[in-house]
Amino acid sequence: MLPELQRYAVRMEPSQDQSERVRTPDLSRTVLLFSSAAAVVLLADQGSKAWAASSLSTCAGQVAPRTFDLCLAFNQGMAFSLGRGAGPLISLVAVGIVIALALASRKVSSVGQVLMGIVAGGAIGNVIDRALREPIAGVSPGFMKGAVVDFLYSSFWPTFNIADSAIVVGGIALSVLLWRMPDPEPASLPSVTASASSGGPDGAS
Question: Which residue in the list 45, 150, 183, 202 is annotated as catalytic?
Fold first, then answer.
């Protein structure tokens, strides 16, 4: 009987090639969801900024702006015009966050992977502005000192852009998702170890 069980176990045990084929689709799906969400946000952000920079008048030139409006502004800080002058530090932190999100995306659900991609796409969008655009007047050019384009104006909130929205909304949604995730169950001991500790069927104390 025992040799037959051993032969059955050998047949059922997946080979290394089979294990790789099982794991590969999961990794491919993670990369697809994360990168697709990031790409959509990045394209929408950079496209809207290019349109705003070429088509909109500056917010400072508006006599009586409405509660919500579209106008052009430039930001040397981070989201919602905070952290003015800290572009290089903010950019380095943003790159680190994108890398951390990419690595962590394999451990969350599909929804979490999409949300992580949304946040990463927003972060990359603002980093591109700092790397490629000119700084505002009075700021000397330098590493990651370009001005971020903002164009979504409100009378009660600093002017922002699509990347800012993706970072904030995606970050909040991701926090809620992770908070609602069930705690991981403690790993159970193998049944062989349990039977051995209790005496087992063949060696009862």
Answer: 150
Nearest-angstrom CA–CA distance, 121 and 40 = 8
Average pLDDT, the chain: 80
Mean pLDDT, rounded, for 38-66: 90
Catalytic annotation present for 150? yes
Q: What is the pLDDT of residues 172-201, one digit of tens each?
A: 999 999 998 776 555 544 554 444 445 545
Instruction: Tell me, yes or no, if 164 is annotated catalytic.
Output: yes
Tell me how far apart the alpha carbons of residues 167 and 186 are, in angstroms, rounded to a whole number.
Answer: 33
- Angle made by CA atoms 23, 19, 28, in degrees to the nearest 5: 20
Residue 151, phi then psi, degrees to nearest 5: -150, -5
Catalytic, out of 45, 69, 164, 183: 164
User: What does the radius of gyration of the chain's CA atoms come to, in whole angstroms?
Assistant: 26
CA distances to 2, 3, 19 from 201, rounded to whole Å, are 15, 19, 33
